Amino acid sequence: MNAPNLVHLIGAPTDIGAGDRGASMGPEAMRVAGIDRALRGQGLTVHDTGNLVGPHNPWQPPVAGYRHLPEVIAWNTAVHRAVSEALRADALPLLLGGDHCLAIGSLSAVAQHCRAKSRKLRVLWLDAHADFNTHTVTPTGNIHGMPVACLYGNGPQALTALGGPAPQLQADCIRQIGIRSVDAEEKRLVHAAGLEVFDMRFIDEYGMREAMNQALAGLDADTHLHVSFDVDFLDPDIAPGVGTTVRGGPTYREAQLCMEMIADTGLLASLDVVELNPAFDVRNRTAEVAVDLIESLFGKSTLMRR
Q: Which of 62, 67, 193, 203 is 20 to 30 Å from 306 by CA-CA measure?
């Protein structure tokens, strides 16, 4: 199947799962940086559905290992509904976050859609963090550090079963790329789950090209390709506008290659862009870099040779 030509922009302006305030301003920063215009420039039809509505951030301490769990459930339920509606309309849902806890709702909807259509699912998780913490090992209780664990069925039922019986994802469908900050107990859980991780040590040793070749191996026309792009995937020298910067991430050129190789598959069918925090940015620079990279995800290429 070819990637959809219609894109639904879905704003989710919340920092409910994060440890810093400000990611709630991410969707508008992406709009200011020209996300709509950039996608139209790639020949796509764009429908901006506006922003979802959910509870405010009460900024409370964790309860039983989770911060703001009722509010996180409410926001993810809204995201699940909006992404499901986009997929039913044969559109590509592009979730504008917001923090990365929202991927629970987004990917639950995508996984449910793939099961209904009997399609294979491949998830590329572009991030500095593995996001595999649980309420028993988390140092903070912030649920933006738990979405992959929840999607694998390790979390509260209201989140793990959002798209049907848990788990929403199996270990063989996800590839994590750019990882460089993992808590000690979280690392143990990642290894036990058997996640395939192309961390920055792998990229340093073998290059982004080899990482992406392996991460994209086995795709075919019946594969739904989902990209969950946490902006802290990028090195903070080029993307300072996030709340959880980790030095030593992909350079601009490495990130461009990553995006262009994804675009070359022609299989991109859903996308999250999360953790953009304008409160930490410099003149919206990070949003502009993110939009530039998203253009490459949808076909803008530096390739000149035939």
A: 203
